[in-house]
Amino acid sequence: MKAKPDKPAPRRKAKAVRLSLAVQYAVKPESVPTRPQFRLWVRAALRRPGELTIRLVDEEEGLALNRDYRGKAYATNVLTFVYDDLPPEAGVMGDLVLCPAVVEREAAEQGKGLEAHYAHLVVHGVLHLQGYDHEVEADAQAMEALEKQIVTSLGYPDPYAGDTQ
Q: pTM of the prediction?
């Protein structure tokens, strides 16, 4: 009698975290990812229920936000606004602001695929919404390791490959 191979245990799907996501387009170049792409990337990084808005802005609005909230006189790739005054049980609530012109310029300068760069910035922003930061070296290393794990699990290259930092 031939032995039957052991059947692998059925895989349990991870329970999906509740997500309410709005995407706002102040600008919408053709190269901007789709709403389903944004949803996929947010879900990949989200560990708690969340209510998020992703807003795509031009460089003028990006500069104004970065200047007014961070004191920096330039448009940046992604800004994260956390709604701090909510209790932790409310989940993750906040806004991510992306500036497509900056994202496109950076991807070209760094030799990265545009979609992969967007995915990385969304993951990065969602981690900030959940309390991760990179102000202290040990925290930066932990955040970058998690970003690499999430981004590569989505099928994109390591966003930090080639960085000399």
A: 0.86
